[in-house]
Amino acid sequence: MTITVAGNKKEYPEGLTVGQLIQAENVETPLYVTVSLNDEFLDSAVRDETVLKDGDEVEFLYFMGGGC
Fold it and tell me: Which of 8, 35, 47, 62 could form a disulfide with 19 if both were Cys (CB 3.0 to 4.6 A apart)?
C-alpha cells in the first residue's frame, strides 16, 4: 500500500499500524510526538490498534515550548 509520510509517498505492507510506522520511520522520542492521520489528530492510546490504509496521510508533529 502507498501512504504519505511527512509529504513523501512510501510503500508499506498492508496491515501496518501507526505504532509500527513510528518504529519503521525511526521517529525520535515517540512518546512526545503527536500523530496527524488524514488531518485529524490521533490519540496516542490508539496508535497500536489504528491500522493504516492505502492513501492515508501521516504527519509527525513535535510541539516546542519557548519564547521570551
Answer: 47
CA–CA separation, 17 and 54 (whole Å): 12
pTM over 0.85: yes
pLDDT tens digit sequence for 40-56: 999 999 999 999 999 99
**Is 14 within 8 Å of 26 (Cβ atoms)?**
no
Spell out a b/e string for 11-50, using b for 16 or more CB atoms within 10 Å of the CB, else e. ebeeebebbbbbeebebeeeeebebebeeeeeeeeebeeb
Contacts of 61 (CB under 8 A, 6+ apart): 33, 34, 35, 36
Q: Which amino acid is at 17?
A: T
